[in-house]
Amino acid sequence: MIEKINLNNILFLDIETVPEHQNYGVLDEETRYLWEHKTQYQRKDEVSAEDFYERAGIWAEFGKIITISVGYFVNKADIRNFRVTSFWGEEKKILNDFSNLLNTHFNGAQHVLCGHNAKEFDIPFIARRMIINGIALPNKINLFGKKPWEVPHLDTLELWKFGDYKHFTSLKLLTKVLGIPSPKDDIDGSEVAHVFYVENDIDRIITYCEKDVIAVAQIFLRLRREELLVEDEIIHV
Question: What is the tally of structural domains in the chain?
């Protein structure tokens, strides 16, 4: 029962990713071959591996993380706050900073992570990029040997499925049907690489990522039939 979970024990998260390199042309021959082979079933016949490279950010083997945004409730008595912060910069620094947060503040048995489609995308992506960057996995995302009921992760997409595993609902659609202000009021995921590599506007991406974190928290509140956050309760730190 999600109503029984203490909100203060949940770390809400979202990541933004881009292709590891701006241009397909800088890839060495072996990487080009591996990319072509990896994507052969996703690409239509008329789409070349080079043209498809703009989507490389969705695979941890060919993409990288440019920001991780997190949010957490600080509820005391009748005062409710939701604090949001982001890690950005070089990928290894982002991952180390996030790891330190987990190991220092969200490493207890009571702590859980929560995102939208986080079990399928965000958390595996973070884990794989940590391994690629030579970073030890924090306990909260080290799933080796853990049984399904021992995994300390919540997923608003999974909660919304209610056991219907063929069903997918985007964050934008779910916020719409639940009456939550949409986080997709500026850019969407398909534009992140352009904003990062061409516009060099990481602040815009961080704002976008933090809005997604807030939206996930709002969805979780709605699933618990609780009042949504208002602007005054959200603190950016």
Answer: 1
